[in-house]
Amino acid sequence: MTRAAFITVEGIEGAGKSTCLELIAQRLAARGIALQLTREPGGTPLGEQLRALLLGHKHDGMSDDAELLMMFAARAEHLQHVIEPALDAGRWVVCDRFTDATYAYQGYGRGIDLARIATLETWVQGDRRPDLTLLLDVPVDVGLERAGRRSAPDRFEREAQPFFERVRAGYLELARAAPQRYRTIDAAQPLDQVSAAIVAAVDAFVDARS
Ligand code: T5A
């Protein structure tokens, strides 16, 4: 039996994470793997309330530290009530964003010291880290154009282009620093090519873990 794994999907807005998540779920299910799909911020009742506060416009002037701590508050809840129980029960967890998003957005994007984020990461997660992270990399103008077509901008989507350029560069830096965990996929390609790359990455990961 294959050990349960924790897979995360990352990328800037409009990179195609939601689309990709469905595909990963289908692929794992086809290979007989039980899984739990979830997302951050969110994934629990409290986490979803924090998500609404973080993405909505009621607190547009929120401080960077409040934003950072709310991300980790939601994550603590998510780990305790969803992620760890699922992994303990042998279900794989596929999560739309996780702590790499905090490094990318609050660290590289907002400018919070990465060492402070690392302290919170260890405090909240202990040793828990994703086993595989799929980074959907897309140029900022392409991602924002796709996201803008889909819905009205949330609190993050109202940021200017340079913010997302820093976030994208941050993600690429994180991927370079952890090549054994990251698979970077060119998400600017047509959807069928992105899908093929995702399926190949998931299959290779499952095979290596079997
Ligand atoms: N955040 C989150 C932090 O700041 N710190 C943290 O620690 C965490 C966890 C969450 C926000 O919170 C921030 C980051 C985010 O700003 P979210 O809803 O998770 O928000 O993230 P979004 O990026 O806003 O999600 P989106 O739905 O915008 O992006 P997706 O899921 O990447 O894109 P998707 O799949 O909805 O696709 C968008 C559109 O593009 C099309 C799709 O059909 C869809 O219409 N599309 C393509 N079109 C052409 N070619 C392709 N290859 C395509 N792929 C998708």
Describe the protein in words.
The protein has eight helices and five strands, in the order βαβααβααβααβα. With 210 residues, the protein is of the alpha/beta class. The protein has a five-stranded parallel sheet with strand order 2-3-1-4-5, sandwiched between helices. Helix 2 packs antiparallel against helix 3 (64-88). The radius of gyration is 16 Å and the shape is globular. The model has no long low-confidence stretch (mean pLDDT 96). The structure holds P1-(5'-adenosyl)P5-(5'-thymidyl)pentaphosphate.
Number of helices: 8
Mean pLDDT: 96
Termini separation comes to 7 Å
Ligand identities: P1-(5'-adenosyl)P5-(5'-thymidyl)pentaphosphate
The class by helix and strand makeup works out as alpha/beta
Shape: globular
Oligomer: single chain
Strands in their spatial order, largest beta sheet? 2-3-1-4-5
Summarize the biggest pleated sheet: 5 strands, parallel
Note the beta-strand portion: 5-15%
Helix fraction by DSSP (H/I, runs of at least 4) = 55-70%
